[in-house]
Amino acid sequence: MFNFLKGVVGGSGTGLKDLPYNIGGPYPSAWGSWSHFRGTSNDDGSPVSIFSLSGSNPQDGHLAAGRNGVKRLRTVRHPNILSFLHSTEVEAIEGSGTKVTIYIVTEPVMPLSEKIKELGLEGTQRDEYYAWGLHQIAKAVSFLNNDCKLVHGNVCLASVVVTQSLDWKLHAFDVLSEYDGTNGTATGPMLQYEWLVQSQYKPMELAKSDWTMIRKSPPWAIDSWGLGCLIYEIFSSLKLGKTEELRNTASIPKSLLPDYQRLLSSMPSRRLNTSKLIENSEYFQNKLVNTILFMEILSLKDSVEKDTFFHKLPNLVEQLPRQIVLKKLLPLLASALEFGSAAAPALTALLKMGSWLSAEEFDLKVLPTIVKLFASNDRAIRVSLLQHIDQYGESLSAQVVDEQVYPHIATGFADTSAFLRELTLKSMLVLAPKLSQRTMSGTLLKYLSKLQVDEEPAIRTNTTILLGNIASYLNEGTRKRVLINAFTVRALRDAFSPARGAGVMALCATSSYYDVTEIATRILPNIVVLTIDPDSDVKSKAFQAVDQFLQIVRQYNEKSNAGDIAGAASLGISSMPGNASLLGWAMSSLTLKGKPSDQTPLAAANSVTLATTTTSTASSGLIETLSTAPVHCVSSGTDFADQSMPASPTSTDGWGEIENGIHEEQDSDKDGWDDIEPLEEPKPSPALENIQAAQRRPVSLPVSQPKPQATSLRPKSTAKVTEDKDDDLWGSIAAPPPKSSSKPLNVKTGGAVDDDDPWAAIAAPPPTTKAKPLSAVRGIGTKPAALKLGAQRINRTSSSGM
Where are the compositionally biased (Polar residues) regions (predicted)? Predict the structure, then answer.
């Protein structure tokens, strides 16, 4: 029989090699004759608890009871009963005798008495935690008595252990026996090992060994008494010395006192059933118990209950014991989010709890859940993740961001929701530094290129700001290909004034990445135009930018003249205050109350701001405007040196040179912007091209001749033609003048030409000829006030010169 039990309980029993665990240090207390040790698994090093019981005689009653406890613990499973992992029995020869040791391996636990000392809870938080623990033990006892018809026989402080998540669990099953109340003729002991129970824990009928009364009593009678003993010990913080001490109720909470007295009734039949205690006791109605119980049955709750609960949870957890929140509620919440039973607002509570953890614990307990949530298709979860990315983004490793997080976030760039596109854009400020160059150049910049022509002006503005912020993380070649095109061709020509302001400030913040040639030929000409912008804030920024870039050019020339070529080539960012700091967001969350076409103008003060404390007011003003009225793409009504402000860009192509590289030519009037020109204007006829080229060509007038007025084709704002070619701001990118050997295309062979008239070469013939005079065309002739170029309406068949 003994060999059979060894095979059932302990395997082969050949030695400690059957125990694949390392035994560590002991705990100071354990139930009965057992010893409780810390331990670890040989496989993965995970923590466990190891209980051992030794005897010199294989037929020792303690060993027999221990084997009963092993068998019962192995077969009885419940969330509030200690989880069994492994067991073995070892025989060792000591002197002339044999020593037998039983080992039980369980989940890692700690004696309740030791954990109470470690936590050191007081007042309301102590009572709430005790209520939760007693609730768990009462459920375990109720399960044994009512569902399994088993009697534990020795419920007390020593028979309760605490897990790492601070759950209370029942163990010490050596005395556990079946309830034999249906056998009225039996006279022997119902509890075979009742002699192991200390006398102070025995109810009167058990102390008298009145087995007839015990069999007539309900199955919970003995264990209800034991639960009363447990309540006394945890609230008095004393080990029960004798049964009479149970009458001292000074330490028992008033809300629990009536139930405590019923548990310890002298009549077994009148003792309170533990299931009734769980259902009806007022003591268990507190915040901690209700919160944990709600979380445990979360999957059974409807969406309204979940939303209400999770909106209250961030404030609620501040009132609960901190250690219970972190060790019990946090794992429950992380699991609920991971498996989809928790609503999106739960993420706020999770991150709040995570903020109380150390960096190592946060990486271990919170980050894995967050990374998995990025794969969720729930849009509300995605929004919540992006809104709080500043709280956990820095903790994400570069590899995790590049391989696991970014591929899911990138889908938000093309989302139909403008709010989600904006949140995705802003998240890149945190994540971009962790992306590889391949990801940034291959996908991120393409997404940003499309967002820079988004229908929402706030998104276009913030895209420019983001580019200015992440410029330092781009490699030199990418910066050369992208920045100037994105800021000048796109941002500075945007109809939305904050977008133009963002472009100016982005250029200033990234000025250290441009050489002098780029500044002189591509940047300054575009910024100077904005010095007459209708928006005062844009004008102010444009003047500051002009000063900054001129200072860089001036320093370059000074060093070049002094022979310091190396110093001139290494000019860094200028000393303009604030430009060294990162650009701040110009916009905040979008309130989509209307279509872009229905949007109203913004005030000029609500424009791009730097990320400094002094500009936070302007930024918040813009946020308020966006929240109360839809944004309108403000367009300018003033001609900027023959170039009207284009409408909001609508093309969805990239910046052109991201993949193909820049093909710059010094004599190109587009300066490398061909493939990303935001406007799609019809190509003029060859004749009109010549007229426009002549208009842009500086004209030197004889001193003795007056300047032509009526025949001028230029707008009023630029009608004054200077004699110095260097004064033309657009001279560097204007169309080159025709060579002297070329024949003018528009010279009329049949009419006289006035040598003093600079426009005579392309002017219409006098009305005396048979050809239809050009003066009849709107904008030329007797109507000098008309500013629009009328050459588009020329009848090509009316003039042989065309």
Answer: 702-715
623 vs 612: CA distance, rounded Å = 16
The pLDDT of residue 388 is: 94
Percent of the chain topping pLDDT 90: 56
Pairing relation of β-strands 109-111 and 84-94? unpaired
Query: Cα Rg for the chain, rounded, in angstroms?
Result: 43
| Residue located via tokens 């507190």 | 286
Task: Assess whether pLDDT exceeds 90 at residue 505.
Answer: yes
What are the angstrom distances between the C-alpha of 594 and each of 539, 585, 591? 29, 22, 9
pTM of the model: 0.67
Q: For 376-407, how does the pLDDT look when each residue is reduced to its tens digit (9 = 90+)?
A: 888 899 999 999 999 999 999 999 999 999 99
Of 598, 604, 599, give the one whose Cα is nearest residue 586. Answer: 604
48 lies in a domain? yes
Q: How confident is the model at residue 412 (pLDDT cuts 50, 70, 90)?
A: very high
In the chain, helix, strand, coil percent, each to 5?
50, 10, 40
Do both 169 and 66 map to the same domain?
no
Number of Cβ within a 10 Å radius of residue 515: 12
Q: Which of 528, 514, 544 is nearest to 610 (CA)?
A: 544
Q: How far apart are CA 330 and CA 356, in angstroms?
A: 11
DSSP 292-339: HHHHHTGGGS-HHHHHHHHHHHHHHGGGS-HHHIIIIIHHHHHHHHHT
* 176 and 276 within one domain: yes
pLDDT of residue 560: 86
Choose among 602, 579, 629: nearest CA to 461: 602
Residue 31 sits in the same domain as residue 91: yes
Q: How far apart are CA 570 and CA 745, in angstroms?
A: 48
Count up the domains in the chain and report the number.
2
Q: Which residue has the higher pLDDT, 105 or 681?
A: 105
- Rounded to an integer, the average pLDDT of 445-465 is 94
340 contacts: CB under 8 Å, gap ≥ 6: 376, 378
Specify whether 145 is located in the same domain as 281.
yes
Joined tokens for residue 678: 């935001």
The reply to whether 180 and 123 lie within a common domain is yes
* Cβ pair 485, 494 in contact under 8 A: no
In terms of domains, do 219 and 246 share one? yes
Q: For 715-755, write each residue's pLDDT tens digit.
A: 333 333 333 433 333 333 334 444 444 344 443 343 444 44
In the chain, the N- to C-terminal Cα span, in Å, equals 120
What are 32-85's pLDDT values in tens digits?
899 999 999 998 999 999 999 998 887 788 999 999 999 999 999 999 999 999
Please report whether residue 272 resides in a domain: yes
**What CATH number should be reported for the domain holding residue 156?**
1.10.510.10
CATH number at residue 39: 3.30.200.20
For residue 596, CA distances in Å to 68, 204, 206, 413 come to 77, 84, 84, 19
- Please state the length of the chain: 802
Arithmetic mean of pLDDT over the chain = 76
Q: Which two tokens stand for residue 560?
A: 């070049």
Of 459-463, 663-667, 763-767, minimum mean pLDDT range: 663-667
Average pLDDT rounded to a whole number, residues 180-191: 68
Domain-ending residue, one of 108, 123, 151 = 108
Q: Which domain does 233 fall in, by range?
A: 111-287
Query: What is the secondary structure of 168-217 as a DSSP string?
Result: EEE---TT-EE--TT-TT--S-SSTTGGGS-GGG--HHHHTT-HHHHHHS
Same structural domain for residues 241 and 170? yes
Structural domain ending residue among the three candidates 58, 85, 108: 108
Q: Could you tell me if residue 515 is inside a domain?
A: no
In this structure, are residues 189 and 209 in contact, taking their beta carbons and an 8 Å threshold? yes
Q: Do the domain assignments include residue 149?
A: yes
Residues 647, 635: Cα–Cα separation, whole Å: 7
